[in-house]
Amino acid sequence: MSDKAKSQLAAASAANAKQTTNASGAGTKAQTPVPPMPAPNNAQAGATNVPASSAENVEPIQIPPGSIALVIKVGKAQNIRGGKGEKVSSFIKVQLADFDYKESMVIPDTPAPDFNFTHDQVLHVDENLIDIIANKKLFITLIESLPKEKTQILGTTELGLSTFLKYPLRDPNAPPTTPYLLPQLNVRETLPITYLNPKLLPPPAKEAAAGEVPINNQPEITVEVSLSSPLIPPEIVEQGNFMYVRLDDMFPVPDEWTLKDGNEKDLNSNIYQYAVSFCVPAESSAERLISISGGSLMHCEAVIPDVPNIGPQPIYAAKAEAIEGSAGANGEVSEGGGASGDTEANAGALTLGALVLSGNSGAGGGLGSGADGGQGSDAAVTKQSFKRVSWGGAGCAGGIPAGSVAPPPYIIWIPPEAVVKLREKILAKCQLELDFSREVQQRFVHVVDPNSAKYKGKAGVDISSLMYPRVMGLRGRFYLDLLDGNLGGEVIDHNAGKGKKGAAKEEDANVYKSIGAHIGLEITLEKPLLDKKKLQPISKCVTAFIPKRTIPANLLHQKRSEKADEGFRDQIQAIVKSLVQEYEGTLQMVVEASAAAAANTPDIAEYDMFEVVHPKTLDEEQKRKKKFLFHLNKSGAYFNFKEQLKSSVVNVVRERFRKKSPFASPAELQLFLSELYVYLLDQMHICIHKMFKEVDSAFLDPSILRTADFTMLKAFADQSELDHDIPVAGTYHQERIAKYEDSLQTWFDYGAFCMRSGQSSKGVECFKEILARNAKHVPSLLAYGAICTSMENYEEARVYLVTAAELQPKYVLALTLLGLFYEITGEEIESEHFLEEAVKVQKATTNDDNVANMMLKAADFLVQIHATHLADSALANSLLKTGPSVAPYLLLSQLELQRGNPTVAVENIKSAMQVRQDDPDVWAALGHLQFRQRVWTEAQQSYETVLTLPNEPANLPLIYIRLGFLYLKSLGSITKKVSERVYAEVELAKRAKTMYIRACELKPSAQSWLGVAKASILLGQYDEAEDSLSEANVLNNRDSEVWAYLALLCLTQDRQFEAGQCISQAIRNKIKNIEALRLVGVAFLDSDQAAPAAECFRMAIELDPKDSSTKALFSKALSAQSQDCLKSTFDPTSTSATVKPEVST
User: H helices then E strands: how many in the chain?
Assistant: First the structure.
């Protein structure tokens, strides 16, 4: 290495060490070093300053560990003008922050000098250097060289270096081995030069017309700055953090602070600047001091609230879409005159890379909350003119003046170890102490301020909210207080006349507290301090929680063989149908002609008498048979039928006979074929016999015959659930499962029913059964995932919901539920991603992008399975999107009813009624709730209101049935004769019958026809009642109430034997209707049949042990039964006292 290079390296290292020492002692405000002697300016014409690094035979500068090389290059300048116009000799002075400056050689007599200046500097990297690079600027001064070794400054320009701290974002889902992205290490810009004397410059060029090249006649210079390596390794940046601090203003201020022009002889004039300092945790030491100076006293006139909103307000991280387009982990921080970040700063929001600060900067405690922010507050406001200390923020003036640029925030690097210390400090409830001080401006540095200690203040900032989830910072205003030990200080009046002694004036002990001074502050972080656990990929599957169900070998063989037999019979039935069609298409005309010829045969009647076939007819039949077989072989139909049957025969061989290996001998083959032939022939005969025996259903689709009860049993279960007969509804569901065991839908319906009826353990087992049989059943995956969310088994829930979304990635419901799940678990980014995807899919499929509709569909599914957590979230999202609406409130009322909170359910229905009072579904829901609570009068009024509205509700037949029930209930016993009733009662009975008939017209059911029968019995129309009960029995022959009222009708018509059979069927079907049992018991008692009457009364008492009237009737029936028994035993007219009457069975 040359001596010149060595000397430069030593000078750079010494300057760096000096900078580090000064910065560590006084925060990031380093002491200004003593400038070296300027380079000579009397260089020869055309001479250039060759930097040491570009000299010939110079070895590269060695960079010690933990240091970097900073290279500054200044190139060509343009449009330079001096005192003599374009003939100007100039040089530049380059200075980074407070380091020693360097000067270039003089470039004579040219307006476009090419300085070709290079300055290398080796700097030791520590926290202070990073703060300097982030917050200080590179200053370049353009100087004109005049005769007689005189100089004058023409202009200046500056370049911010915070770009070196903008690290590109790293994909959070990238594998750990993915290399980190490096920040930009080279900055090259053409900077405008701001002249001290603008008169030296020509007026700016006019704007270029379209298509013309714009002309620039203003001075500019090209500067390039580069680093040898990143200031901070990217992997360290991942673990550390950046803090951004922005001071707003402080007001009110003491009255003695004046805005008079600065005068060193007047210590009460405006010769001061103001600074705020605070300590942050450090890596090399416990903490380090940060000082932000530059505050100035200025006049302000604005509207401010009488009561300021004091205290920190958290700043939350933005949503996922706000992150797109961010430049780096540190963010786009405006550099004063730079273009990036100006809009965001003027809007009052800091855009720091991936962070977009959300929240209001108004009176809620944010920056600038002193004035315009108070417009949204209830506090009284007055327009005032006052003084304030400002650091360039919006302040109480209500915003940044038009055309000006908000100052960038002060950037502080917090290393990983310091981040840990900061967390510990927050958890220990330690506040951030701000120290406010007044100091003399730089140009008045020789003046001593005797009152500096008097105005040293402090403010405590509660930073505990920085440890909240998603909190990226805080903003607010904080009261200022005096530092400890400064109370009772004196203020000297320096405005006293000459020669007179200034009088000491005692003021309030605490000047800041007495005037209520407060300071505005905003602190933001590059990433939250609360380490959120990264969402890990799912390593488990459904079978990890629910093992696949293993069916025993014998049971599996039985199921498969039955399925194979069923498939063979279905194929036989299909072939028979095809044969009939072929026969009709080819031989129908021949059959008709033969029948006509046989009719003209004279002796045909003789053969008909003996039921034998006429010989001519037999010959014709044989001919037709041969002709039909010829047609089948010629047309290829026979071959098609054989191929159609082949696959089902193969299944029978494989599953029924379990034959999968070759035969050992021909004899074994012949034996097997004989057994198979016999078995297949038997199955064929069974199928054909069944087809032609049941002619009406012979040519129906077999699948329809097998599923005839599938829908019917589900309808019975739903009707029983509507009538709140939970045991009967459960029985129908269980029977449906027993009959269609292999159907997953039956298990799903029963599981949902169990969840709604409060049998959660049974419901969970149903969904587990489904997933054990088929782990890809999407509805069960969604249902069980939602139930696990309600039970707070989030790991399991995530597995099921994610699996469902992966199986059907375009299923709106699956995407919606997964988004709601992530919302509950606090994964905002994932939640928003899946909800947006659900909206896109819904719009693509249904052309509907209404989020509220999507949430309502999800909520309806969740209410049906009683998944409360996700249902609440879906309904809340729907109400947030559309505001108060009917559908969400109705679903909320259903959910609260399932929870057993009828009072809350009523409140939700009333809320829906306030939204739309003429909605029939709202009134119907209110009526159903009142009916369930047995408030009969109010329920009747609600149902009648539904019928008066112009629109129809969703379930109008149920309204008719219940309204008819209420009419009949108000009439009392239906066995009371019509002649004994008043006209109004008869009309009401007719109205009830009308209601039931309307329900039968819309949706006939056993309940609606039963209602018609009850009304007909009351009106004495027994024939219509019997027809109605017969129709009800056809629709549901296991309805116990229908059988009971059939027994009542038979007793009314004195058909006692039929009545006994009907009541037996009612008891077999577990009748639970107390009123029906009592009516039938009374009818049996009136018919002198005490035994069945006593049985009816006994069952009624079991259902309602507190019913005294039924107990009295039961006692009467028992007494009558005893008398009958004694009478039959000791009847003197009988031939033998011991002979008992024959009891028919």
Answer: 37, 24
Structure tokens at 636: 């290829």
Strand partners, 784: none
User: What is the spatial distance between Cα 467 and Cα 430, in angstroms, rounded to a whole number?
Assistant: 13
Q: How far apart are CA 1035 and CA 660, in angstroms?
A: 47
CA distance 920 to 959: 11
CA angle 1008, 929, 870 (to 5 degrees): 110
Q: How far apart are CA 1096 and CA 1072, in angstroms?
A: 11
The number of beta carbons lying within 10 Å of the beta carbon of residue 956 is 17
In the block, which residue shows the tokens 């656990």? 533
Summarize the confidence of residues 1026-1055 as an average pLDDT. Answer: 91
| Distance between CA atoms of residues 710 and 857, nearest Å | 25
Pairing, β 457-461 against β 432-440 = antiparallel
Which pLDDT belongs to residue 373? 39
Across the range 861-870, mean pLDDT stands at 94
CB atoms within 10 A of CB 788: 24
Q: 1072 is written with which tokens?
A: 């639970």
536 Cα distance to chain centroid: 18
For residue 952, the 8-state DSSP code is -
User: What confidence tens digit (pLDDT) does each residue in 682-720 have?
Assistant: 888 888 887 777 655 545 555 565 666 788 889 899 988
Non-local CB neighbours of 962 within 8 Å, separated by 6+ positions: 927, 928, 931, 939, 943
Query: How far apart, in whole angstroms, are the C-alpha atoms of residue 857 and residue 854?
Result: 5
Nearest to 810 by CA among 836, 769, 842, 776: 842
Tokens coding 274: 């103001």
Q: Which residues contact 343 (CB under 8 A, 6 or more apart)?
A: none
pLDDT, position 94: 92
Residue type, 122: V
Contact 280, 417 (CB under 8 A): no
Q: How far apart are CA 909 and CA 907, in angstroms?
A: 5
Contact indicator for 975, 1017 with CB cutoff of 8 Å: yes
Query: pTM for the whole thing?
Result: 0.62
Check: CB of residue 1081 under 8 Å from CB of residue 1093.
Answer: yes
Q: How far apart are CA 266 and CA 281, in angstroms?
A: 40
Q: Which residues pair with 459 in a beta bridge?
A: 434
Compute the CA torsion angle 702, 703, 706, 708 (nearest 10 deg): -110
CA 468/CA 313 separation, integer angstroms:
12
- On whether the CB atoms of residues 274 and 250 are closer than 8 A, the answer is yes
Write the CB contacts of 411 (distance below 8 Å, at least 6 apart in sequence).
Answer: 131, 134, 135, 162, 165, 242, 243, 244, 330, 333
Rounded CA-CA distance 528/242 in Å is 10
Give whole-number Cα distances, 260 to 300, 454, 898, in Å: 15, 20, 75
Cα 241 from chain centroid (whole Å): 29
Please work out, in degrees rounded to the nearest 5, the angle formed at the alpha carbon of residue 894 by the alpha carbons of 889 and 897: 125
Give the distance, in angstroms, between the CA of residue 956 and the centroid of all CA atoms in the same chain: 35
Kindly give the pairing relationship between strand 150-160 and strand 137-146: antiparallel
Q: Which amino acid is at 15?
A: A
pLDDT category, 564, cuts 50, 70, 90?
A: confident
91 and 105 Cβ atoms separated by less than 8 Å: yes
d(CA 547, CA 211): 73
For residue 809, whether the previous peptide bond is cis, meaning omega lies within 30 degrees of 0, is: no
Q: How far apart are CA 1130 and CA 1125, in angstroms?
A: 9
| Nearest partner of 91 among 150, 141, 143, judged by Cα | 143
Most confident residue range from 441-455, 681-695, 816-830: 816-830
Got the DSSP string for 236-268?
HHHHSEEEEEEEEEEES--TT---SPPBTTBTT
Question: Is the Cα dihedral 758, 764, 770, 775 positive or negative?
Answer: positive
> Amino acid letter at 583?
Y
